[in-house]
Amino acid sequence: MAVTQAQIAELAGVSRGTVDRTLNNRGRVDPEVAERIRKIANELGYQRNRAGSLLVRSKRPVKIGVIIQSVKTPFMQQLLSELEGARHDMAQQGAELLVRTTRDIDFDEQIGLIDELEQSGIDGLALTPVEDVRICDRIDALSEKIPVVTFNTDMPGSRRLCYIGQDNYMSGRACAGLMNILLGGTGTVLMITGYLSNQSHQRRIDGFRSEMLSAYPGISLLPLERCEDNRDTAYAIVNEALDAHPEITGIYLSANGPSGACDAIRERGLHGKVHIICHDTTEENVKNVRAGLIDFLIDQNARAQAVRPLSVLLDYILTGVRPADEYMLTHIDIRNRYNV
Predict the structure, then answer these.
(1) DSSP state, 326?
(2) Considering its fold, how many domains does the chain have in total?
(3) Domain that includes residue 99, residue range
(4) For residue 109, how many other CB atoms are within 10 A of its CB?
(5) Verdict on whether the full-model pTM lies above 0.70
(6) Which three-class secondary structure string do you get for 76-132?
(7) Residues 295 and 306 grouped into a single domain
(8) Are residues 173 and 269 in the same domain?
């Protein structure tokens, strides 16, 4: 026999209306009460009827807000393209996408977009969060009313529903292992990140550095440099580093900027002498892999990162079922000239 909201209300010691608001993500409910209701519902195996929820909402589509930061970079452009490609399919399922972007990593701009989307009446939010405690607080406040999913970049410790993207720390460790193979256990490596305020960039560097220091003591690491996702800045960093440290044999980039590094290596005639590892299967990176300037790049599946948050949010909004895993990780996909 199907479990009813009335049964859950009786066991939780609350009204049926409180149960309805909790399981349908409508209105404000005390967080502790809401958690008790969801726990009872899960234990009893309660399931909302997806078709019935769609029928109830047929007069107004489910509104899913999406915020993507740093869209000036090629990979974020891939994410945006995948999202736009998903619009028709989501509309067929009764959902409308409200996509907002920021060119850079900007706290004030992101907060403004969150406020705008909330005021527009969104039922759920997919977000690439700026690394700032105030964004964490905003996610927590928003989660009392609607579900929030982070993707590409996470906000650990927040009350977001789940994170969808790569395990960036493990990705950085994998790059360290690849660099060790390329250098034969000895050499000097320049590390370049994008923004210290971008958690995915920093977690990759943390994993790379940790693995290098613990497993490959014969390889020296130069101080971390920042290019702020700019190819020209990366070009200048590589040239200045090679002037000061001509012994450099490896470059690891955790963010956008590999094309600038490749230009510097090409102009100096160091093709094949300085090895480069970076991230993302962008058109420019693939070109440089095929030219032998980039030895390895790590792909993180733009399509999965764009589409999964939408399906997770829609399922939760319509059925109240939380995703089975807090972390829905994409593969660490290693590419070289033979498989790009």
Answers:
(1) S
(2) 3
(3) 61-165+302-330
(4) 17
(5) yes
(6) HHHHHHHHHHHHHHHHHCCEEEEEEECCCCCHHHHHHHHHHHHHCCCCEEEECCCCC
(7) no
(8) yes
Residue with tokens 């994998």: 174
Of 192, 196, 249, 188, nearest to 216 by C-alpha is 188
pLDDT digits (tens, 9 = 90+) for 24-36: 766 678 888 888 8
Please name every residue paired with 277 in a beta bridge, in sequence order, or none if there are none.
252, 296
Place of tokens 């406040």: 141
Kindly report, residue by residue over 165-208, the tens digit of the pLDDT.
999 999 999 999 999 999 999 999 999 999 988 889 999 999 99
**Contact indicator for 50, 321 with CB cutoff of 8 Å:** no
Is the pLDDT reported for residue 44 higher than 80?
no
Least confident stretch, 46-55, 86-95, 101-110: 46-55
Do 122 and 213 fall into the same domain? no
Residues 214 and 203 occupy one common structural domain:
yes
Q: Per the structure block, which two tokens stand in for 190?
A: 């320049």
Structure-token pair, residue 199? 């958690």
Residue 183, CA distances (Å) to 159, 248, 250, 281 in order: 42, 11, 7, 23
